Amino acid sequence: MIVRRNWALRLSVVVNICVLLYICVHFRTGAWVEDGSNWDNSSGPSVQEVSNEIQANNNNNNNNNQSSQTTRLSSSVEGRFSRLISKGKDKPTESIEASKAIENKEQTSHKSETAQSSSLFLSGQESSPLAQPSAAAVSSSLSLKDIIKCNDKSLEARIAQRGDYWVLYNYVPMSIYVRCWESVTYTTHADFTFLDNLEPLLRRWQAPVSIALHAPGTDFQPTLDSIRYLRNCGSPLVSQFTTFHIYFNSKHVPRSVPSSEKVLSSEPYNCSLGAPWSNQNVINNKMYKNEKKLLYPVNVGRNIARESAITHYVLASDIELYPNPGLPDNFLEMIRKNDHPALSKSNPKVFVLPIFEVDKKSQPPVNKTILIKMLKSGSAIPFHKRLCSICHNIPKGKEWQDAVETTDLTVFHVGKRTGNFAHWEPIFIGTNNEPMYEERLSWEGKSDKMPQGYALCVLNYDFLILNNAFLVHRPGIKSYKKDQRRDMLTEKTNTFIKKILLPELKVMYGTRKGCVV
Fold this sequence. Notes:
The chain is α/β, with parallel strands linked by helices. The chain has 19 helices and 14 strands. It has helices at residues 2-41, 47-64, 96-122, 135-141, 144-147, 198-205, 220-233, 236-241, 260-265, 280-286, 288-291, 298-307, 327-337, 341-344, 368-377, 389-392, 397-402, 450-458, 484-509, and strands at residues 158-162, 165-172, 184-190, 209-214, 242-249, 313-316, 321-323, 349-352, 355-358, 380-382, 411-415, 428-430, 462-466, 471-473. A hairpin with a 2-residue loop joins strand 1 (158-162) and strand 2 (165-172). The relative contact order is 0.10.
C-alpha cells in the first residue's frame, strides 16, 4: 500500500512538471511576439513629428527675427532635409544636433520595423520563395539613406596647405545642414568677378553649392566684400545653400585674413555700395591677378570645391553653366528607383549632362521642350559649337535632341570616351571617387579636363547620358578670338601633357585601346 502511494506521488509530480513546462513554453513564445509589438508601439514620437517640431521652432525663431530670411528647400525625394535653418550669424554646425536627434528617431523606427519582421518569423508567417519581391521592387522600396551609403561631412572652417596654395576651407559656410544622401552639391570655382552668376544658378539649382574662389594678394578684400554683398543684399538662397572656400598661392598671401568667425559676426554689408564686381572694366584692370600676370589655377579650385562637398553626389561644373530646374531631386529619385539596366551594371559610371548656349536676347530654357524649340529656331546651339565642337558633342546627340521630354529623369544612352568622342570633355554628376583634376594645368593653357577624361576612359567608365537634364551657358554665344598669349600657353601645355603628364598617367592608370588625352 505504501509503495503504491509513493509511485502515485511520483507520477503526480512528473505530470505537474510536464504541465508547467508546457505552459512556460507557450507563454514565452507568445510573450516574445507581444513584447516585440508593444516595443514597436512605444517607440516614441515619429520622425515626421520630430521634423514638424523642429520646423515649428524655426518658424517661431524667424518670427522673432524678421531680418533673417529663410526658405525651405524644394522637397527632396525623401520629403525633407534633416536639418535646421540657422538664423542670423549662427554657424551651420549648430544644426547638427537637430539632425542627430532625427537620426536617433530614424534608428528607433528601423528597430521597430526589425521587431515586426522578427514577430512574423517567430509566428511562422514568413513568405515563401515564390513570393519574394523582384530586385527592382526591393530597390524602389528602399530609402535613399539605404541606397547611398555615405558619411556626413563637417562644415567646420579650417586652414590647410595644398601644394603651393593656402586654402581656407568652409571659410563662409552655408547655413543649412544637409545629410550626405539628401541632395546633390554643385561644385564650382571662380574669382569674385564671376559671382554675378551665383544667384541665377541658385534659383535653378536650389541645393548645396560649394565654390572655391581664387583670391591672391589684394584680390582678397573685394572677394570677401563680394561674399558679404551676396549674403546680405542678395537672395537668401546664397546664405542658405552656398559654402565659400578661398585659396591663393603662398607667394601671393593677402596682408590680412580675418578668421571665419569674425567674418560671420561682422556688421552687414552696406548694400548701397553695390556689388564689388559691378564695373567689370575698371575691376579687371585693377585686379591683383591681372597686374601680376598670374595664371588662373582652375583645377586647384575644382578639386577644393569637389572634395569639400557635403553630399555623396556632386556636379562638378563651371559657374556660368546653369542646370535645368529640379535636377537634384529628379536625379535622386532616379537613383532610388534604380529601374534602368545601366544603373545596376558593375562598371564605374558618371551621369552626363548635355551642354548648350543661347544668344544674348534669350533666357536659358527651363525644360527640354523649350530647349528643343530654341535649337530648331537657332537661338540655342550645342556648347562650343564655334570653338571646339568635338569637345562637347555627346554620343547620340542628334537622337537626344529628337527625343521628346518625358516626366521622369532616366538614362537616355550609355556612351564611351573613344572613337569620335576620344577628346570629349563631359560635365557630369559623379562622386569624389572619380579621378581628380590635374592641378598643374591652368585655364589659360586649355585642355584642363583632358587628363581626367583619359583616366575615366582607361578605368572603363560608363558615361550615362541623362534624357531630360542639361546645362545652359549664361546668355551669349561664344566665338573664337585671337589671343596671342593664350595661344603660346596652349602650345606649352600641349607639350607638357605629351612629354610629362601622359607618361605619368600611363604609369598611374595604365592604358586602354582608344583612350587618348
